[in-house]
Amino acid sequence: MNPAWTWGSAYPAPAKLNLFLHVVGRRADGYHLLQTLFRFVDYGDTLHFAPREDGQVRLLNPLPGVPEESDLTVRAARLLQQAANCTRGADIRLEKRLPMGGGLGGGSSDAATVLLALNHLWQLGLSRERLQALGLTLGADVPVFIFGRTAFAEGVGEALQAVPATPAWYLVLQPPVAVPTVDIFRAPELKRDTPAMAAADWRPGLGGNDLEPVACARFPEVARHLAWLQRFGRARMSGSGACVFAEFPDQAGAEAALAQLPPDMQGWVAPGLDSHPLYGLLP
Ligand SMILES: C[C@](O)(CO)[C@H](O)COP(=O)(O)OP(=O)(O)OC[C@H]1O[C@@H](n2ccc(N)nc2=O)[C@H](O)[C@@H]1O
Ligand SMILES: Nc1ncnc2c1ncn2[C@@H]1O[C@H](COP(=O)(O)OP(=O)(O)OP(=O)(O)O)[C@@H](O)[C@H]1O
């Protein structure tokens, strides 16, 4: 038990970036087989928890447009109660910073933080593997946040191998659009046959994002933000968009680029993380 994380703590839910994302095939159920590199960055949502003795799970501040019952934080907490036969409850407060439909895994990260934090606070003792499997039922991006390390991912994103991360800073731009993941994967023009690579062959800088041309064609704001960012080198879209990012060797370079951002664009700078801030909650 880690004494540093208590009911009163602020629990981070960091963003992820997909440093590359290839679609290498399709499963019989329609889900796409991917290869991708997940990296966490030091920017994200924050969650607060308080115990409830009546066994209920409540989100005190639901997001506009997302009913409490379908919020991924509430769904994650109820799933955990069920899986562990737990009769304790919790109030959840969500400080949202990550854009919805942003490709930064915001909702997935919130769900993973709920699973990690309440497993700890309710003293349930579920293993990392068990929480990853539970998380996968909520969304393809949830397991990596529980896995907790920079990862080469395959399958729909659930087959994870830790890879070393080089220190880097990122400038992330948030186009003012929400991209529905399902629309991008459904697009007839999506390239679905990029040859698979061996995890050991991946090097920083290798690979593109196969979802990027589809999102750029359908959401001109994504294309416009990507085009602006290209002036600083290789810029990429994360996940299914809308956010785009560029990597810099140090903070000064990333901040200098951010300082040039036109007034009609929004962005932020953050360092890459070596591991999820809650990684140490589990053995
Ligand atoms: C694009 C990524 O963000 C890359 O990290 C993820 O693969 C998306 O993960 P996610 O947002 O958790 O997506 P989910 O909520 O699991 O899926 C949303 C919808 O996208 C489609 N989908 C998703 C993931 C995948 N590998 N193939 C798909 O075809 C499915 O139609 C699914 O119903
Ligand atoms: N706690 C939550 N935070 C954000 N979105 C949520 C949450 N709970 C449910 N949702 C729903 O999930 C949808 C996707 O949100 P999310 O922020 O995970 O998208 P995303 O950043 O595009 O993710 P990805 O990188 O996985 O494509 C939202 O449009 C919203 O309707």
UniProtKB/TrEMBL annotation:
Query: According to its UniProt record, which residues of this chain constitute the active site?
Result: K16, D141
**GO molecular function, a single term:** kinase activity
Q: Which catalysed reactions does the entry list for this protein?
A: 4-CDP-2-C-methyl-D-erythritol + ATP = 4-CDP-2-C-methyl-D-erythritol 2-phosphate + ADP + H(+)
- GHMP kinase C-terminal domain boundaries: 209-261
- Which keywords belong to this entry? ATP-binding, Isoprene biosynthesis, Kinase, Nucleotide-binding, Transferase
User: Where along this sequence does the record place binding of ATP?
Assistant: P99, M100, G101, G102, G103, L104, G105, G106, G107, S108, S109
Describe the location of the GHMP kinase N-terminal domain by residue ranges: 72-148
Recorded superkingdom: Bacteria
Kindly report, in one word, the top-level EC class recorded for this enzyme.
transferase
What is the E.C. number? 2.7.1.148
Q: In which pathway does it act?
A: Isoprenoid biosynthesis; isopentenyl diphosphate biosynthesis via DXP pathway; isopentenyl diphosphate from 1-deoxy-D-xylulose 5-phosphate: step 3/6
* InterPro entries hit by this protein: GHMP_kinase_C_dom (IPR013750), GHMP_kinase_C_sf (IPR036554), GHMP_kinase_N_dom (IPR006204), IspE (IPR004424), Ribosomal_Su5_D2-typ_SF (IPR020568), Ribsml_uS5_D2-typ_fold_subgr (IPR014721)
Family per record: Belongs to the GHMP kinase family. IspE subfamily.
Functional summary from the UniProt entry: Catalyzes the phosphorylation of the position 2 hydroxy group of 4-diphosphocytidyl-2C-methyl-D-erythritol.
This protein is called: 4-diphosphocytidyl-2-C-methyl-D-erythritol kinase
Question: Which organism is this entry from?
Answer: Azospira oryzae
